[in-house]
Amino acid sequence: MTQLSVNLNKIALLRNSRGRDFPNVVEFAKKFIALGVHGITVHPREDERHITRQDARDLAKLLADYPDVEFNIEGYPSEDFLDLVEACNPDQCTLVPDAADQLTSDHGWDVAWHHELLEMVTDRLKKSGIRVAAFMDPDLEQIRRVADTGVDRIELYTEEYASTYGSPQQDAVLKKYIEASAEAQRLELEVNAGHDLDSHNLATFLTIPGILEVSIGHVLTVECIEQGMPTVVANYLDICKESA
Ligand SMILES: CC(=O)[C@@H](O)[C@H](O)COP(=O)(O)O
Ligand SMILES: NCC(=O)COP(=O)(O)O
């Protein structure tokens, strides 16, 4: 069964839009946990446009009381980010090659350029007992290169899958992800996935064998506004239960 990790970035974005602590990110984490999600994901960006460093610390404190709920912190491994991750000590850190001015995450690592950085950061975080994942395109050559950096997992960047879902390109694109996931597992890398997954496209994606975790936030948040959190979370958990 694939684990569902809910990304709280957009709850924080709403909170930041009014200059007071409402909606409260920790309270929404509790609501999602009460509905049965397996994990909480946040992506504290340098400009704190949504999740702040304090949010991450507050969530770390909350999740210490929920040992069965995983905490995943995503971000670019700057010194400031790494200090925050070590202070929060999450179950997992997902390394994302985002520049500070990017609108959102839109590519995986180019390991040829960043091999040394990934190797050094991974070694540092694993010494704290943190599982390390690398945010990757479904690119076989990049996945082969990342295998010897020491990362435990990859997170497949699924925007291309989501944007072609339901189009004539769907099957060819899905095949790329099937092959990328299989190659990662052949190299003894575990596989997560995320970005633009939603309640319509997720079930087909989870026909790919061995997807351990999906992290979902943007569309899930909108679906919760439309349909209510209980209905939406129950639907995602049902889909995750049926994963290959
Ligand atoms: C890494 C990834 O694809 C997402 O987890 C990312 O956190 C999205 O960031 P925004 O919510 O800032 O678009
Ligand atoms: N790693 C993906 C994630 O955490 C959430 O991505 P999205 O669902 O907000 O696109």
TrEMBL record:
3-amino-2-oxopropyl phosphate binds at N7, R18, D196, G217, H218. GO terms for molecular function: pyridoxine 5'-phosphate synthase activity. 1-deoxy-D-xylulose 5-phosphate binds at R45, H50, T104. The keyword Transferase applies. The gene is pdxJ. The keyword Plastid does not apply. It comes from Leucothrix pacifica. This is Pyridoxine 5'-phosphate synthase. The active site is at H43 (proton acceptor), E74 (proton acceptor), H195 (proton donor). It is an enzyme of class 2 (transferase). It is found in: Cytoplasm.
